[in-house]
Amino acid sequence: MKKNAGEKQMADITVIRKYTRELIKATFENRKPSEIPEGITLPELMEIAVRGQMPYLLYNSILKVTGECDENKAIKGTLVYSTMKTFMQVFAAKEITAAFEKNGIKHQVLKGTIMKNIYPSPEMREMSDIDLVVYDDSLDNASKVMESMGYKNHGLIKHHMIFSKGKELVVEVHWCLFDANAGKQQHVYFKDNFRANLKEGTEYTYEFGKEDFYVYMISHMAKHFFETGCGIRNLVDIYVFWGKYEAEMDMEYLKAELQKCGIYEFEKNMRRLAFIWMDDEECEPFYENLFEYMVNSGIYGKTENGVWGQLAKEAQGSDDHIKLHYYFPSLEFMKEKYPWLSKMPFLLPVAWIIRGICGVANKSSRDHRSQIENADKEEVSKMLEIYHRLDLGFRR
Length: 396
Description:
Layout: H1 5-29, H2 42-51, H3 55-62, H4 72-102, E1 107-109, H5 112-115, E2 130-134, H6 139-148, E3 152-157, E4 160-165, E5 169-174, H7 184-192, E6 197-198, E7 205-207, H8 210-228, H9 233-245, H10 251-260, H11 264-278, H12 285-297, H13 306-314, H14 322-327, H15 331-337, H16 348-361, H17 363-374, H18 377-390
Parallel strand pairs: 1-7, 2-5
Antiparallel strand pairs: 1-2, 3-4, 4-5, 6-7
């Protein structure tokens, strides 16, 4: 029977899901994977690896089945580079935290630096930069210490300072765990509740317990997903974390904290997808669509994907008149961007005009407009189902 376009697309993403799983598992288990199946090519696999920031996880196994080919040189070079970069990052993180401890700077290492130590081997978990947070009013002192260690200070960007050393080391020093503009619930949650504990044997170095680290990890994933989408490496993080700590987790506490952050449904569905993928379980269409969206998003998502979170807020039920929702959002939605509407709701049409004029000059807005203009009804329906089912705290 001849397949329609949707069925062909589903078959392709199924091949991707099953074979990327095989490559990752083979790397974890230090074995040779099965041969590359029909329906996917080596260049496509390499693109997925790079876009998803998982070159070591996939390339380590790919190299065992490619034989002699033109791509092998690039694959080997990437594996060497990835291993070298991991060594430099791990050493740098230890060096920085030791310097902060010595100089009395209350701090905590975050994100990928922690996850590297949870994976079977650190190089399996790529990261672009070292993230840490500085507590109290120690930012100026932290800057001086970083500069004394040979790091170049690139100044303030949003809620962190960026430092670099050479081409390989980038360090983000945050002064709060969660940006207020990224997610109000999460910002308030982490701002009002200091959940880190002093690391044993230290006076100024803090760390999360397992449950709190996981809540923080999922909060960041949810932020990226809502704003622009996020990649499948996040699913591997979830799978690896649960594989190591499930027996030790306080499930009641974890559920309560995820609910406080408005990300309980998001975490539940992402964890389900992680285990469907990594344990090769039967995959219903919703999770196949979600996996496909995440594969195509790349590790940090795409600017144009930001339109779906907005539309999910507006279109709570039917996806009819979706363009109307986009061009003429509700009063409640517009209040988030134009707070003065709370006192003057009758000026909503004026706010629509201002939004439209500003959107012409804004690349992000143009990308959003292009995304919605080019989406067919099936894609719109699929995307709204994904965002509504994940329920990132935006239901009214």
